[in-house]
Specification:
heterodimer; A: 355 residues; alpha/beta; Rossmann fold; two-stranded parallel ribbon; B: 500 residues; Glycerol-3-phosphate (1)-acyltransferase; 7-stranded mixed beta sheet; two-stranded antiparallel sheet
């Protein structure tokens, strides 16, 4: 009955909040740096900030430049997997007088290059935070995912931010992200005067985003687990971006689940998508998907099967209460919006470059 | 590659047929599609079949050509269409000889032109399926034969006759206007069938159908199998609720199962409810009941059905189910859709804060695991979590005794060896269970009696009392004792397990 709730690790300590418009840069506006600026969230945030009058300059840090970069943006090519990146990022943050950092450098789909992913997410966050320790930063916003709570039969139907991150630690995709959150919590516990916000988004869907969820639902025949029909929750890409914008505009230290209203059973999701499902008995599904993953026929490793079996739905109440975040799309609407684009993709009518 | 393509085509077939909203029609269409015959054709009486110009159907509709072209790996299907069209050639010749004079549809709709509205202009692919079509010369001959009647009066008569029949057909088409959207491309007719049905079938649905093609659908969308899959999916959703409730209750699914639940409560268990008015008509309330022993506890669902039926306000009750249910395939999902919620403080608190009526079985898995000889002996009431819940959320508590449930699935023995690996607390042995297989899980038709006691409120304790272990333990014990005495009283009143 008692669920493991650890108050110690999950939430960054509420720090003394510096005055809201404390350190303005010379041109009268904040200077925002984004790591992983060429990923989906990064690209679109850069586009949003370009039009934002409160933002003076944008510093993008990634291995490639985001295509949405405009006149405000300045790109620095830094590979966070490189140990030398620590000094380089510190240098950039200092010289550009960055006051806000958005850390988005996380993979949205599992990869076979687990070693590299570890260097990027877990160790890369360490490098980044070490760099941040060397400068004075006013705000740090990091992306995380509600998937990290893990799907368990003992989960409550709505997981709050106080719930422990119990995702499968044998899966590098989760383990690295949890490690990155731990790094950040350690940083937040010590740093004075930096607002640290963690936004845990539910699986993002939408017309332009591409991640493992859209790939899973994009399959013609979608594997499911026989006899299991968990409740799923999505957040629309626009809502996810709005949450990041909100976290940038106002100071909300702490961890927040960014979700949309409502849940949908997997079976209904597939019916809305018009996909036929292939129910696998859960006893053999793991080895089948494992074989498919090794041969690169599957988009996800077998550890993701838990999410087709047990519920992993987050409670967005705190974000609504504290941040004032109200999602514009319900889970169903978000899904339908994604499916409208997916149907064009199915007919090869949508030209796009995956982000 | 080939397999994939085949699958795709199958999908198309299904979805095509599934577009029909009318239930019986849709099933007929399914059968027809499986037999390889287009559904609308089945609907048409032979009389109508005679009047249509044979060539309309002897040639493959262009749409199907598109489709076949689209999935161009489909060799077997191409063969099928060739077989379908093969008899068309003898037919052209038959026209010259002993063709019946009247049934000739001269002023018919130009199918090619008609279908062209739907079909995206694509160039070179047309030729691919055409080879089996009668050459133009043959068709011209047929037309010439049709125009062979020289007598003007005879022609007039023919035209009038045709017009009358056409009106009839169109009228019928209008009646069925709500039917399948886009004219389904007829799947290849099996050769055996074709031989005894040389007569062409009219497309009675030609005038009506375009109306139901969504305006927004572009040509290529219409061509894509996904389009039909989606239409089918949406059609299927009509019978279902918009969304499940946030804890997974699916009202539409429950409504579908309502006859079964009603049968179980009214006829099978003959549930009798006493004191339902002790449950407040609105606002949060926690019902605490004894748990039935046995492999599958039915008491939660029965309690829900009984309260809905007998409570003056017909309240919707949610019950909290043990964790292990969610490890099991089918059972967890089914119970969740019917209103069960996993038992934990967070869920219960959230439900109560929304003003719900929640039932909890504090005996938990220990209660389910009761052996037959321990029936109606209340087990330990967990750690008193339900008392904490009541104190924290200031919820009135209604004790409830259920008699009859604990004999429905008498458990004689339970195996606990190796069951942890299966995610279940024990493996039950009942007089019927492993012996009769899944059928053994069927409960015995005992007579059920549900009695609700006076509501207990602890308004003199604040929420902080939830942290007082001694108080929680004492209150928990008091609730347990009151339910036990209710049970004892009801058992002494009862004369028979089966008749109550």
């Amino acid at each position: 009955m008692a669920d493991p709730i650890d108050n110690s690790n999950s939430e960054p300590r509420e720090t003394a909040i510096p005055p809201a418009r404390g350190s303005r840069s010379r041109s009268g506006g904040r200077v925002v740096a984004l790591t992983g600026a060429a990923c989906f969230l990064g690209r679109n945030l850069v586009g949003l900030l370009e039009e934002d009058p409160a933002t003076a300059r944008i510093v993008t840090i990634d291995v490639k430049s985001p295509d949405t970069a405009g006149p405000k943006a300045k790109h620095f090519e830094v590979d966070l997997t490189n140990p030398a990146s620590e000094d380089r990022v510190a240098e950039i943050l200092a010289s550009e007088e960055v006051d806000t950092l958005v850390h988005l450098c996380f993979l949205s789909s599992p990869t076979h290059a687990t070693g590299w992913a570890h260097e990027l997410e877990s160790v890369g966050t360490m490098h980044l935070l070490n760099a941040v320790r060397q400068v004075r930063l006013r705000k740090l916003v990091q992306w995380s995912q509600t998937m990290l709570y893990g799907a368990h039969p003992t989960n409550p139907n709505f997981l709050t931010e106080r719930h422990a991150l119990r995702a499968d630690m044998d899966e590098p995709f989760f383990a690295d992200k949890i490690a990155a959150e731990r790094e950040l919590n350690a940083f937040a516990a010590k740093s004075k005067g930096t607002v640290v916000t963690v936004l845990r988004t539910a699986p993002i869907v939408g017309p332009t985003v591409q991640n493992w969820v859209t790939r899973y639902l994009g399959m013609r025949v979608v594997p499911t687990l026989l006899g299991f029909d968990p409740l799923l929750q999505f957040v629309h890409e626009v809502d996810a971006l709005a949450a990041f914008k909100l976290a940038l505009d106002r100071d909300h230290p702490g961890t927040f689940n960014i979700t949309s209203d409502g849940v949908l059973p997997l079976s209904m999701v597939l019916r809305l998508a018009g996909r036929s499902s292939m129910p696998l008995p859960h006893t053999v599904a793991s080895s089948l998907v494992g074989a498919a993953w090794i041969t690169q026929a599957s988009a996800v490793p077998p550890s993701f099967l838990r999410y087709l079996r047990y519920v992993c739905v987050a409670d967005g109440d705190k974000a609504a209460r504290v941040m004032g975040f109200r999602p514009a799309y319900t889970t169903r609407e978000a899904l339908l919006d994604y499916l409208a684009a997916q149907s064009l993709r199915d007919a090869n009518l949508l030209q796009e470059s995956p982000a | 590659m080939g397999k994939k393509q085949k699958r795709k085509h199958k999908e198309t077939k299904e979805t095509r047929a599934g577009v029909a909203p009318k239930e019986p029609l849709a099933t007929a269409a399914f059968v027809a599609a499986d037999a390889g015959v287009a559904a609308p054709e089945e609907e048409i009486s032979p009389a109508e079949g005679e009047i249509a110009a044979p060539r309309l159907f002897a040639e493959p509709p262009p749409a199907s050509s598109e489709d076949d072209d689209e999935d161009d790996g489909e060799d077997d299907e191409d063969d099928g269409s060739a077989a379908e069209i093969a008899p068309a050639l003898p037919y052209g010749t038959a026209l010259d000889g002993d063709a019946p004079p009247s049934p000739r549809l001269v002023p018919g709709y130009d199918l090619d032109a008609d279908e062209a509205h739907d079909v995206a202009p694509i160039g070179p692919t047309e030729a691919v399926i055409r080879p089996s079509m009668p050459p133009a010369s043959v068709r011209d001959e047929a037309d010439a034969a049709g125009a062979g009647a020289t007598n003007p009066a005879e022609i007039e008569q023919q035209i009038r006759d045709l017009e009358a029949r056409l009106d009839l057909m169109i009228g019928r088409g209008r009646e069925r206007a709500d039917e399948p959207a886009y004219v389904p491309k007829p799947p290849p007719v099996p050769a055996a069938r074709k031989s005894d049905v040389p007569k062409a079938k009219p497309r009675s649905d030609v005038p009506a159908p375009r109306a139901s093609v969504p305006e927004s659908a572009t040509a290529s969308e219409v061509l894509s199998p996904e389009f039909y899959a989606k239409q089918w999916g949406r059609a299927g959703l009509r019978s279902r609720s918009e969304e499940v409730d946030e804890f997974g209750l699916d009202p539409a699914f429950e409504a579908k199962l309502l006859p079964v639940l009603d049968f179980m409560t009214k006829r099978y268990f003959r549930v009798e409810v006493e004191g339902a008015d002790h449950i407040p008509t609105e606002g949060r309330c926690l019902v605490v009941a004894n748990h039935a022993g046995g492999p599958l506890p039915y008491d939660g669902a029965m309690l829900r059905a009984a309260v809905r039926r007998d409570h003056p306000a017909h309240r919707e009750l949610r019950w909290l189910a043990e964790d292990f249910v969610y490890y099991l395939p089918f059972v967890g999902t089914l119970m969740n859709r019917l209103g069960a919620v996993r038992a934990c403080q967070e869920n219960a608190e959230r439900l109560l804060n929304k003003g719900a009526l929640v039932a909890v079985f504090p005996e938990g898995a220990k209660g389910i695991g009761k052996l037959y000889r321990d029936r109606y002996k209340l087990q330990r009431f967990g750690r008193g979590g339900f008392i904490r819940l009541c104190l924290r959320t200031r919820t009135p508590l209604v004790p409830c005794a259920i008699v009859g449930a604990e004999e429905a699935n008498p458990m004689l023995y339970r195996f606990e060896y190796m069951t942890k690996t299966l995610g279940i607390p024990y493996f039950p042995i009942t007089p019927t269970f492993p012996a009769l297989g899944p059928l053994g899980l069927m409960p015995a038709p005992t007579k059920w009696r549900i009695r609700f006691g006076e509501p207990l409120t602890w308004s003199n304790y604040g929420p902080e009392a939830a942290d007082d272990e001694i108080l929680v333990g004492r209150l928990s014990e008091r609730v347990r004792a009151s339910i036990q005495s209710m049970l004892d009283r009801m058992l002494s009143e009862r004369r028979s397990v089966w008749l109550g």
